[in-house]
Every structure is written in structure tokens, then in C-alpha cells.
């Protein structure tokens, strides 16, 4: 398989959990746990992209490769685009974006999303999804839904429950009749050339309405390949409750 690189954007500021990348998890900062997990994948390189010297300081003793980026990026994708330039990656290089708050992300999913993009030479992006099997999740606006073509490429993404069951949703459903609905998993593989272009585009109108950055790629005519995740990923760390859950997982594992 073609080599690929993992980039972990790590921003110190966080609305819900300030200093989240440095939150302690069983004696190590969270960003170090994410870096260790990413190194279990088949990636040729694992790079942490940060704008904060405190994050750099905790990772240097571990031997992590670090790229210091600007502090004015509005999105993690823009930070990735800067990394592509700093590392002088070729346009065909594959870059997997692993969020810095995913210390339990299975390494096999990193390999899977990279492989899916490599297999579909006409796609600019690859990502993952899993079936939705309960009504509450489908109608939750915080859960992003995706629909796919027969080729596996994304048709669209939305926070709305889609596809809409014209007959079945006339009344609020109590259960779902099929597994036709898919939840998007926010793990991405990109071609480096796409990241260069993406950083120059203005946000698309549909992107601004849904607040979903991936719609910018579809708006500009780029294909996004969507694979069904081989394993179910544990949730990331968005809240203090999430952090305690992850701490408990490590405590139980190390007991």
C-alpha cells in the first residue's frame, strides 16, 4: 500500500475543556496518548501540528515529530494545509487527520481510511461511517448523517435525519425499520493537493447553513469516499464527562 502520513492537529484552546490536549490520562497528557495510538497504525510518519509551545514541550521528550503552525487558523483543515506546505508534500501524498482528542481511536481505522482513499484514485477525500439503528441518534442534530452512492462516494452530509422516510416518518417513529441510515465518523484521509486547494476556497453556502466543512469539498465538485468502519470507534473527548470516561478505561486496562 502507498505510504501515508498522520497529522494530529492539537490546539490548546478549547471552549469546553481549556488546555484539553494536556489533560492528564493515566499519567500522560491526552495528546501523547493520541500520538501513541496513531503510531500503532501503518503510517510512515506521525506528526503533531500545534501552535502552542506547551504542547511541543510535553511531546519532545517522547521523540514525537512536531510542526509548529500559525495560531490564526479557523479550522483544523487549514492547519493541515499549512503542514502540507511546511513538509513540502507532493500533491498525491495521503494525509490522515487524527483529531487530538481521540486517545482511544483504533489504529485499524486509520489504516482503513487511508487505504480507501488510495483505492479510489478519483476521490480527493475518504472518511468513515457506521449504521444508525435508533431513532434518537437519527434525529439528533449533533450527529452528522451521510448518504452514499453505489460507488461508496458521498452524496451529501447533513445534521437532519436523512434520507427522510416519506411514509414511515409521517408520525414520530418508535423504531427504525432498516439500517439505511449512516452516522458519519469524523476521521479523514486527504490528498495533499486537495488540502492546498481547500485552504483557498471560501466557505460554501450549504456549509455555512449546516456548519459542516466537508460540504465545501462537495460544493466544489470533489469526491468523498465513505467506507463502513471495520470496528466501532469509541467516542472522543469533548466534555469533562468524556474525559472521566476515558480515564476510567485506562485505569481498568492498567489495573
UniProtKB/TrEMBL annotation:
Pathway: Nucleotide-sugar biosynthesis; CMP-3-deoxy-D-manno-octulosonate biosynthesis; CMP-3-deoxy-D-manno-octulosonate from 3-deoxy-D-manno-octulosonate and CTP: step 1/1
Keywords for this protein: Cytoplasm, Lipopolysaccharide biosynthesis, Nucleotidyltransferase, Transferase
Family according to the record: Belongs to the KdsB family.
Protein name: 3-deoxy-manno-octulosonate cytidylyltransferase
Reaction equations catalysed: 3-deoxy-alpha-D-manno-oct-2-ulosonate + CTP = CMP-3-deoxy-beta-D-manno-octulosonate + diphosphate
Compartmental location: Cytoplasm; Membrane
Single GO biological process annotation from the record: lipopolysaccharide biosynthetic process
Domain of life: Bacteria
Functional summary from the UniProt entry: Activates KDO (a required 8-carbon sugar) for incorporation into bacterial lipopolysaccharide in Gram-negative bacteria.
Transmembrane segments: none
Organism of provenance: Halomonas cupida
EC numbers: 2.7.7.38
Gene that encodes it: kdsB
GO cellular component entries: cytosol; membrane
Primary localization class, coarse: cytoplasm
MF terms in GO: 3-deoxy-manno-octulosonate cytidylyltransferase activity
